[in-house]
Amino acid sequence: MTESNGSVSQGRQQSQEMPDWEKRFRAPRVSLPDWAEDAPDRSLFVSNATGTYELYAWDRASGEQRQVTDRPNGTTDGVLSPDGRWIWWFDDKDGDEFGVWRRQPFTGGADEPGAPGLGPSYPAGLALGRDGRTAVVGRSTDEDGTTIHLAREGQEPVEIYRHRESAGVGDLSHDGTLIALEHTEHGDAMHSALRVVRPDGTTVAELDDTKGGTVELGLEVLGFAPVDGDTRLLIGHQRRGRWEPLVWDVATGEESDLALELPGDVSAEWYPDGSALLIAHSFEARSELFRYDLAARELTRIPTPPGTVSGATARPDGAVEYLWSSSAEPSAVRSTVGGVVLDPPGLKSPGSVPVEDVWVKGPGGRIHALVQKPAGVSGPLPTVFDIHGGPTWHDSDSFAAGPAAWVDHGYAVVRVNYRGSTGYGRAWTDALKHRVGLIELEDIAAVRAWAVESGLADPQRLVLTGGSWGGYLTLLGLGVQPDLWTLGIAAVPVADYVTAYHDEMEALKAMDRTLLGGTPEEVPERFEASSPITYVDQVKAPVYISAGVNDPRCPIRQIENYVKRLQAREAVHEVYRYDAGHGSLVVDERIKQVRLELDFAERYLPKR
């Protein structure tokens, strides 16, 4: 790696002739800064200021910002050590997600191996000790499954966990004596169990809500209390049909259920003194923040604007910093004590139009859709159904440059939180098992019918598009519902499910076994029913596909298999391959891909 002295003020000057949609991609953006527990003036954040997303160190006391990483395909995976001395970052090859952890002094200097002796792998979590010498490193490989290692400076790493199924590092206690792990040894990759071990790997406590797989409830690690000798672990659970926090004392086994009367999914993190929790509540595509006093058991709302809080952290002085946006307003890092915390100079991103909420009756219950359309324009409009990835994710009232670009060009944009999406309860998220893809398409079709019947969408000019799982649903929808869509644009999709399973990273194999109930050899009929290549001969619409040649999640070989079938039929299609993984961290590359997608739609949609 070549060290760079760039800062967030180094964004290149842009022409005033640049269209708004391109400005949104080029405008400098920053993530919520992470800060060092024992050196809170030292922070780490991600920015695209140089045209590529990279890690930056920020000394709040002096105001100095320093670019930490500088790689052709960008870097976003980084962790700041609790003592503030080291920045750990994950070094893969051109976005293939297979690599090793390296570290660099916060003040600058040469990179060095973070955990010497551990070979390349897919990452499975990282927790750093306050002593500056200890790391708990999770690894995943096709050969070994998941292994977790204790790495101490000057010593060989010691393996403390191994299993074929997926697992990951949760957290390391404040005094370094306890390690929390998430695992799926029961075979359900959608619902983790918890284990707390000592540094030698011996078990201290276990918590498993899956009950041997008969009850599908998940647990997640949210973090140990930030106090020496404190054995309280903050965890998330699904016992009442949605994600909620509770405090588990791993030494005594006592569970303190917060029982917050909030309707949506709730997550939490500790305030720095361990006396309170910062609560994040997500409900119906919006989110809000609260402070929960543990002694008084009181919940107090923290004022934030309507929209989406993408991340939040409580500082030692009691202030809360959070990353906020809405569909109409670009993201900003704000503070409860006033103002914007981190506002990079340079080109400012234009806003977009607000999102409208639509609820549609579907085969599995009410479906929430988010709609944007050009201001002052009446339908029926050419309409883009932009389908989110995951599938365990959801679209929200947050700023997104891609949908805004379509709106700028005269399209309505509809985003559907289909069954499988998060934020609407456990039953909604878990509903897609075994009929994977087909269930989501039923919900998308129901919203499509509403869009046409309401007069919003022109049925002759309907675009189905998405990336990752959204790209998969695009290709599957073009084959399963060939008469519903005018054209399809799929980015980094699953196209041939069986080949994708055999080529993808190990953690995704585990997820696919959970979703479909087994391997392609064990349940071949389910893989066939859920695979886009099964229906490729029914595709009528022109198809555009973009793919990263180093993608470990939706590998290139299975996409090539699908493309060959299109070629054999002489079907109208275009393919764009680029040298990166599951998406690009290079701004110019992102702009190029959006421009190609807009151009494809312009050429193949009927004119009015």
How would you describe what is shown here?
With 608 residues, the chain is of the alpha+beta class. Helix content is 17%, strand content 35%. The chain has 10 helices and 36 strands. The strands form 8 sheets. It has an 8-stranded mixed β-sheet, sandwiched between helices. Helix 1 (20-26) runs antiparallel to helix 2. The N and C termini lie far apart (52 Å). Mean pLDDT is 95; it is low at 1-15.
Question: What is the compact description of this entry?
Answer:
With 608 residues, the chain is an alpha+beta fold.
Question: What distinguishing features does this structure have?
Answer:
alpha+beta; 608 residues; 17% helix; eight-stranded mixed sheet
Structural class by SSE content: alpha+beta
| Low-pLDDT windows of residues | 1-15
Q: How confident is the prediction overall: mean pLDDT?
A: 95
Number of helices: 10
The proportion of residues in beta strands is 25-35%
Largest sheet: 8 strands, mixed
β-strand number: 36
Report helical residue fraction: 10-25%
Outline: globular
Q: What strand order characterises the main sheet?
A: 29-30-32-31-33-34-35-36
Distance between the termini: 52 Å
- Note the quaternary state here: single chain
Tell me the Rg in angstroms: 24 Å
How do the strands and helices of this protein lay out in sequence?
Elements: H1 20-26, E1 34-36, E2 39-47, E3 54-59, E4 65-67, E5 78-80, E6 86-91, E7 100-105, E8 112-113, E9 122-128, E10 134-141, E11 145-152, E12 158-163, E13 167-172, E14 179-183, E15 193-197, E16 203-207, E17 219-224, E18 232-237, E19 244-249, E20 255-257, E21 265-270, E22 276-283, E23 286-293, E24 298-302, E25 308-314, E26 320-325, E27 332-335, E28 340-342, E29 356-362, E30 365-372, E31 381-387, H2 401-408, E32 412-417, H3 426-430, H4 438-453, E33 457-467, H5 469-480, E34 487-491, H6 497-503, H7 506-516, H8 524-530, E35 543-548, H9 556-569, E36 573-578, H10 587-604
Parallel strand pairs: 31-32, 31-33, 33-34, 34-35, 35-36
Antiparallel strand pairs: 1-2, 2-3, 3-4, 5-6, 6-7, 7-8, 9-10, 10-11, 11-12, 13-14, 14-15, 15-16, 17-18, 18-19, 19-20, 21-22, 22-23, 23-24, 25-26, 26-27, 27-28, 29-30, 30-32
Helix pairs in contact: 1-2
